[in-house]
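Lecture notes, unit on protein representations.

Consider one protein chain, 127 amino acids long.
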Amino acid sequence: MNAKEIASFKKILLSIRQKLVGNVNSMEGEALKKSRQDAAGDLSNVPFHMADLGTDNYERDLMIHLIQNGEAELRNIDAALEKIEKGTFGVCDVCEKKINKTRLMALPHARLCVECQRKEEQEAGTA
């Protein structure tokens, strides 16, 4: 991969990272609201239905799951940016072969080539 392509991938990664950081921070703020009243902006102290509480808990759990996924993606992006600095960007972490550019264009923070990713997913499915 030439320097121009590397610079292009770095720009893409930084852009994705910036958007993700904003999204994760926003979701954290919503998920960590102190109470149902705070989350909904509810000013009344009228008792609420238990089903509403269940919905609130489900939505909070979903938000936490989305935050965890976003944080994992941020770690992968940071690892890809570090690989750019080290000169190892686009190299599979397992077999050390080049990752196809088409794959990198679709998933710029890919750590594994298609074959190694397939093997990892198969092993995870059987575990």
